[in-house]
Amino acid sequence: MNKALRNPWTYAAFVVPTLLLYALFFVYPVIVSFIYGLYRWDGVSPKVFIGIDNFKRLLQDAVFLKALGNNLYFMAFSLIVNIPLVFLIAVAISKVRRMRGFYKSAVFIPVVISTATVAILFGVLYDYESGLINQALRLVGGDGWALEWLSKPNLAMLSILIANAWQNVGFFIVLCLAAILNIPREITDAAKIDGVNGWSETRLVTLPLIRPILFVILLLTVSGTLKVLDIVQIMTNGGPFQSTEVMSTYMLKVGFRSLELGYGSAIGVAMFVITMIMTGVLQRMSKSEEVQF
């Protein structure tokens, strides 16, 4: 066994297939998308080379810029609301002594539900006539309290954000909770001896020690909100009046409905570049270091 592990071909047998799959399903599509972005093409007729005109068009496309703004709105909500909520719920569960496993399972259940199911479920809940939310509001304040959650431009995006948060925060809660429970008891006991209790313990001990995990959650949140697609596509399809249009839904409409595959590929490349820039900036800004106990 030791002789096999010293053989470099042993490592190549495991690494090379992974690299080939990575190149096939990630590197190759990115390169092909960039190449297609240099052409005007409907998928049937011969491609016409137009250089970087498709990429220039992005900067003048009001719909694309609005979609980008909606992605940034999605990101801001997730960073300002979801991540603090994840941390607080994880801390609360970590303080529970009884039925902790039940609470962990309860918050994680939405994660295993498909996004299509979540979108349909919340679509039913948001229904103006028969939705449970409006039925409850009518019981409190009458018909005047009922809202058109997915039909009003100022409410549609918020409605999607709530549904998306309900589905995804459970995964991050479990990550954060695992990091909290991994903190050695000696550290927390020493902090209590020094008079650090309650919220002070959370702020001075727990938060600094789980900072690397929080940064991972931050990166996953940023990349996820920049490529969000399915929940928006099913709940509103970018409407009403493009108030919930995001880059992914716009790319699909341009590429497969308008049959502008070249311009759709340019949008895909722009999404990739924006995501890489955002994650790169976060990594440069982050001063977190690996914590060793």
Automatic annotation (TrEMBL):
**What is the recorded name of this protein?**
ABC transporter permease subunit
Task: Show the Pfam families listed in the entry.
Answer: BPD_transp_1
Compartmental location: Cell membrane
What taxonomic classification does the UniProt entry list for its organism? Bacteria, Bacillati, Bacillota, Bacilli, Bacillales
TM segment ranges = 12-39, 72-93, 105-126, 155-183, 204-226, 261-282
The cross-references to InterPro entries, in alphabetical order and at most eight, read: ABC_transporter_permease (IPR051393), MetI-like (IPR000515), MetI-like_sf (IPR035906)
Membrane topology category:
Multi-pass membrane protein
Chief place where the protein resides: membrane
Q: Known PROSITE patterns for this protein?
A: ABC_TM1 (PS50928)
Q: Which organism is it from?
A: Paenibacillus glycinis
Q: Which UniProt keywords apply?
A: Cell membrane, Membrane, Transmembrane, Transmembrane helix, Transport
- Family, per entry: Belongs to the binding-protein-dependent transport system permease family.
Q: Where is the ABC transmembrane type-1 domain?
A: 68-282
